Amino acid sequence: MPPWCPISPYKGLLILVIAFVLLEYFMNTFTSSKTSLYLNTTKLLSDDKENRYGPLLKTLLFKNNKTYSYNKTILSTTKNESYFSYVVTHPPSLASKLNNSSLTPSVSEATSTIEAQNESIPLCPDDVSFNLKGRIPIIRTPVPTVQDLEKRFNWLQPGGHWQPENCRVLSKVAIVIPFRCRGEHLLLFLQHMHPFLKRQQLDYRIFVVEQDGEKSFNRAMLMNIGYKEALNVNHFDCFIFHDIDLLPEDDRNLYTCPNQPRHMSVAVDILKYKLPYPEIFGGVSAISTEHFKLLNGFSNSFWGWGGEDDDMSNRIRYHHLHISRYPLTIARYTMLTHKKDKPSPSRYDVLKQGQQRFDKDGLNNLQYKLIHKKFNLLYTWILVEINQPS
Ligand code: BGC
Ligand code: MN
């Protein structure tokens, strides 16, 4: 047949089929999606869990028997429970096949939930004002129970995590709370913060970092630990360090990290909604992951109340960064009442010598013992032992 002749219908169909197969092949080979699988393996815990679970999941996840690469993160291991996530990279066409039914019976013994994070969904809008309320009430009574809150916030994912369902947020935010013996405050905080952060359409997770024992408290060290442990769970772009007793009064106060470190608790009720001094960086603050690394985190040398935030303020200046703030009308907070701790008398001396230690006291000399890490529905709980050098 000469080349100018019209193509026969059979040949045309054949060409179309080949083109389609090639396109499908191309799409599957050169583009990829990611799916996170979170598995809670209460029943399957055994010594060979690593060997048994990993390869099994790797080959049996997909009915076509192909293996795909995955990143495995052990999220928590306690005595009777183990919880971890797999992020599986796979061709987009497999997204719908990734579900419980493709797991083998032995693997599906574990209760599993699947969170598909398809990279083809659109980005969330930058402007979230349509979803905000502005000033919001602070509720102090009655104090809710954990069960109340878990029922009310059943849209959460384990570890106090949420992200918008129908759009993708580029920046992941970790809220880190240094904690000890403030059960009621924690419940009031969670009750207030989860709906607040959700309205801001954030991809966030709440970490409660608790210091074990009764010895001198070290707020800064707990925040450094929160940073390190959070990054073991997931990638985060932004850290909000948050006192448990401060509740934001206005949801236009966005829990994000701007270009410069942001001091968030500018106007606190008990301080007559005024900034006590321009360098203050205490209460609630936002620092990007990148800056926190540059700053070498907080100093680990402040035991007892006070000074650690002033030292961070000095670190920020030393690194030619500056403290940014929302206006007093937006960055408003209510402080929950508690017995005031006695300020540490040594804090001024430690602060004075701070600069000599900026590059050797912080993230790079942090030492602690992780006692427990648990993914409660309302928050990721990290219990640690830290020791004051004698
Ligand atoms: C302390 C800070 C504290 C500030 C405001 C200062 O004297 O050193 O840690 O944040 O007072 O209460
Ligand atoms: Mn306080």
TrEMBL record:
Localization, UniProt: Membrane
Residues covered by the Galactosyltransferase N-terminal domain: 127-258
Keywords carried by this UniProt record: Glycoprotein, Glycosyltransferase, Manganese, Membrane, Metal-binding, Signal-anchor, Transferase, Transmembrane, Transmembrane helix
Transmembrane portions of the chain: 12-30
GO BP, sorted A to Z: carbohydrate metabolic process; glycosphingolipid biosynthetic process
InterPro entries recorded: Galactosyl_T, Galactosyl_T_C, Galactosyl_T_N, Nucleotide-diphossugar_trans
PANTHER family hit by this protein: BETA-1,4-GALACTOSYLTRANSFERASE, BETA-1,4-N-ACETYLGALACTOSAMINYLTRANSFERASE
Protein function: Catalyzes the transfer of galactose onto proteins or lipids.
Family: Belongs to the glycosyltransferase 7 family.
Protein name, as recorded: Beta-1,4-N-acetylgalactosaminyltransferase
Originating organism: Psylliodes chrysocephalus
